[in-house]
Amino acid sequence: MVFSPDQLVQLKQFSLARVICDSGDDVTHVQRDVFTMVKSRDEYLPCRNIPQIDLKMWSDCCMDCGKAGDFRSITNHFRRRRDSTRFSYQSDKPESENKTVTSLGDFRSSVYSKHEVDTQMQEMKLRMREMETLVDDMEHAMKKMKKNMATMMSHAAKEMFCMEDSGEKRMHGDKWSRDDCTVCRCKMGKTRCKTVPCPTPNCPFPKKMPGQCCMVC
């Protein structure tokens, strides 16, 4: 079959993205090149912006020109012969006339051969395997980095100390009582203290016992 210049223009703008938009289930957005990974959502285009074939380039002398561009009006370019005889009932047509005109799926198959699709699928699988390897390497590097950071923090903590108001030096991890009610701890060069809260004694003359924080009756 020899295509006209207008038909060739239509064929060249046909893409696998258009096939996905037309054949996918509830697909409304797709990247222009479906074999490359998008870096942001902005690279997804609405299906209405993906070029599609104008089927009017294949319609000539249709019986109902109001339907030009519909596959049912495509004539002898996609079927062996055309009979102008009309029938009142579908069952009256000869068996050969009841055969469906070449479907859109068959037409797409003529544009994208099985070999081309298989080749592109293999390339996609190869890229996916490369991405999986890259992710595994990154996870391994992050685990190693986390382990090294923990080791560095451990060594750094041993060299850190806290200084009390009295001038006494406390090393990282040391714990001591500043008074009967206050417990302090040195952590990463900072002194952190916690005071024990005491309830109000339920007696007229409470007493403070040695070594105890709270007053007792």
UniProtKB/TrEMBL annotation:
Gene3D superfamilies: 6.20.200.20, Haem peroxidase domain superfamily, animal type. GO terms for molecular function: heme binding; peroxidase activity. Residues 160-217 form the VWFC domain. GO terms for biological process: response to oxidative stress. Keywords: Coiled coil, Immunoglobulin domain. Residues 121-148 form a coiled coil. It comes from the Eukaryota. Transmembrane segments: none annotated. InterPro entries: Haem_peroxidase_animal, Haem_peroxidase_sf, Haem_peroxidase_sf_animal, VWF_dom. Signal peptide: none annotated. SMART domains: VWC (SM00214). This is VWFC domain-containing protein.
